Amino acid sequence: MIEKNPTAAGCDCCKKRVRDEKELRALKNRLSRIEGQIRGISGMVDSDAYCIDILTQVSAAQAAISAFAKELLSQHIKGCVVDDVKNDRLETTDELIRIMEKLMR
Question: Which end of the chain is more exposed for a tag (fewer CB within 10 A), N or C?
C-alpha cells in the first residue's frame, strides 16, 4: 500500500510503501547479508588479501545487490504500479521506465 505524507501535498519524494512483515523481513535479511559481505571485503583489504580473492567477493556482493534490486522492482510492479494503473495514475509507468533505465546501465 502506498501512502503519501499528508504534510507534503503533491510531493512525490514523500511517497511511502507499507510492507507486510514477511516482505519487510525478507528485504532486511537480504540487506543484512549484503552488509556482511561488504564488511568482509573491507576486512580482506585490511588483511592484504590477494586482489583476485577480493574481486571475487566484490562480484558476489554486486550479484547480491542486483538480486535485491530485482526483488524490490518485482514487488513495486506487482503492488505500487498495478494499484496506480488501476486508479488511473499513469505517471507511475513513466517513473517505472526511468528507474529501469537506471538499473540497466
Answer: C
How far is it, in rounded angstroms, from Cα 92 to Cα 88?
Answer: 9
Quote the domain boundaries for residue 35: 20-103
| 92 in Cβ contact with 79 (< 8 Å) | no
Contact indicator for 76, 96 with CB cutoff of 8 Å: yes
Q: What is the pTM of this model?
A: 0.80
Domain count, the chain: 1
CATH number for the domain harbouring residue 30: 1.20.58.1000
Widest CA span in the chain: 56
* 20: phi then psi, degrees, rounded to nearest 5: -75, 165
Specify whether the backbone of 30 is left (phi greater than 0), alpha (psi in -120 to 50) or beta. alpha
Task: Write out the three cell numbers for 65.
Answer: 545487490
